[in-house]
Write a structure and sequence with these properties.
The chain is built from nine helices and no strands. The chain is mostly helical. The protein has two domains: 54 residues, Arc Repressor Mutant, subunit A (Orthogonal Bundle), CATH 1.10.10.60; 151 residues, Tetracycline Repressor, domain 2 (Orthogonal Bundle), CATH 1.10.357.10.
Length: 215
C-alpha cells in the first residue's frame, strides 16, 4: 500500500520517485521498466523505494492517478474566468495540449494501463468525464450550450481532444503530405489552424440553436 510521507522531505522523495517513474515508463514501457531503473533515475536506493511503494505495479497505478490529477488541474485552472462554457472549452483544450507536450507519458502510460491495470485506466477516464458532465450540465441549464446529452457530449469531447493531441502533439508533424498516417517525430504542438478547425467543430455541436433553427 502506498505510504504518504509525514515530512516535507519525504514528500519530496516520493515526488522524485513519481517523476522518475514517469520518465522510465514512458521510455521503456511497463514490461522493461524496473524498480532499479526508477530508483537510479530518482537518485535513491531501492530500499527507499519500498518505503513509499510496495511494487512496480503500485507506483505505475499511482503515476496514472498523479498524471490524471495534474492534467485535470491544468484544464480546470485554464478555464477559470471564462465568460461561458464555449470559452472554457477553448481554454481547457489549450491547457490539455500544453500538458501533453510537456508530459508525453500521459498517453504512453495511460494506454499501457489498458493491459497493466484496467482499473487505473477506467478511473482515469471516469474522473475526467465526471467533471465534464457536471460542467456541461450546468452550462446547459444556463443556456450556454444547446440541448445536448452531457454524458454523450463529455465522452465525445474527450475523444476529440485525445485523438487531436495524439496526432499533432505526440506524433508531431510527421511526414509532409501524409496526413492519414504520420510518423512519430516527438512532441510538438497543435497548429493554430488545426486548433481553430477543431473548435469550430466543437462549437458548432455545442452552441445553442436559435428559434426554428435545426441541427
Amino acid at each position: 500500500m502506498t505510504m504518504h510521507p509525514a515530512t516535507a522531505r519525504g514528500e519530496r522523495t516520493r515526488a522524485r520517485l513519481l517523476a522518475a517513474a514517469e520518465t522510465v515508463f514512458a521510455a521503456h514501457g511497463y514490461a522493461d521498466a524496473s524498480i532499479t531503473r526508477i530508483t537510479d533515475a530518482a537518485g535513491v536506493g531501492q530500499g527507499t523505494f519500498y518505503l513509499y511503494f510496495a511494487s512496480k505495479l503500485e507506483i505505475f497505478e499511482e503515476l496514472v492517478d498523479d498524471l490524471n490529477r495534474r492534467v485535470r488541474h491544468a484544464m480546470t485552472e485554464a478555464g477559470e474566468g471564462a465568460r461561458d462554457r464555449l470559452e472554457a472549452e477553448r481554454a481547457g483544450f489549450r491547457a490539455f495540449f500544453r500538458f501533453t507536450a510537456e508530459h508525453p507519458a500521459l498517453y504512453r502510460v495511460v494506454r499501457e494501463a489498458e493491459l497493466v491495470s484496467p482499473r487505473a485506466l477506467r478511473s482515469h477516464y471516469t474522473r475526467i468525464v465526471e467533471g465534464y458532465i457536471s460542467a456541461l450540465s450546468a452550462a446547459r441549464a444556463a443556456g450556454e450550450v444547446g440541448d445536448v446529452d452531457p454524458t454523450v457530449a463529455a465522452w465525445a469531447l474527450m475523444g476529440i481532444g485525445e485523438m487531436i493531441g495524439m496526432r499533432w502533439v505526440l506524433w508531431g508533424d510527421g511526414v509532409a503530405g501524409d496526413d492519414a498516417d504520420p510518423m512519430a517525430s516527438g512532441t510538438s504542438q497543435v497548429p493554430d489552424e488545426v486548433f481553430d478547425q477543431m473548435m469550430r467543430f466543437i462549437e458548432g455541436a455545442l452552441r445553442p440553436r436559435g428559434e426554428g433553427e435545426e441541427r
